[in-house]
Amino acid sequence: MAGADGFHESPAAAQWAAREAPRRDLSLPLVHAWRWRPRSSASETVQRQWVRRGQDAGAEVTGDQLRRRTTARR
Q1: Model confidence at 51: pLDDT above 50
Q2: Of 1, 24, 50, 60, which is the most exposed, with the fewest CB atoms less than 10 Å away?
Q3: Range of the domain at 52
Q4: Is the pLDDT of residue 8 over 70?
Q5: How close are the terminal C-alpha atoms of the chain, in Å?
Q6: DSSP H or E stretch at residue 30
Q7: pTM for the whole structure
Q8: Number of continuous H segments (helices) and E segments (strands) in the chain
Q9: Beta carbons within 10 angstroms of residue 47's beta carbon
Q10: Residue 14: pLDDT above 50?
């Protein structure tokens, strides 16, 4: 498992994990979490866009090695 938390080291750690997982014949859960704070002014569409941005950041870090499967939990 690798975490993407916005710190400078996150992309390098995720890239290392993405290279290492297939070598060990393992899947790689890439986790990005934040505190869910529903805002009355933010529509569900906008909130879904926030989730997509997190997915896009993961895809940028790991490239083709990331399968897009996202679970959002509150």
Answers
A1: yes
A2: 24
A3: 2-65
A4: yes
A5: 20
A6: strand 30-31
A7: 0.47
A8: 2, 2
A9: 13
A10: yes
Whole-angstrom distance, CA of residue 22 vs CA of residue 18: 7
Q: Which two tokens stand for residue 69?
A: 């499967």
Which among 3, 72, 1 has a CA at the least distance from the CA of 32?
A: 3
In-domain check, residue 71 = no
pLDDT of residue 39 exceeding 70:
no
Q: Which residue has better confidence, 70 or 52?
A: 52
51's CB contacts (< 8 A; 6+ apart) are 70, 72
Closest by CA to 1, choosing from 12, 41, 18, is: 18
DSSP-derived pairing of the beta strands 30-31 and 2-3: parallel
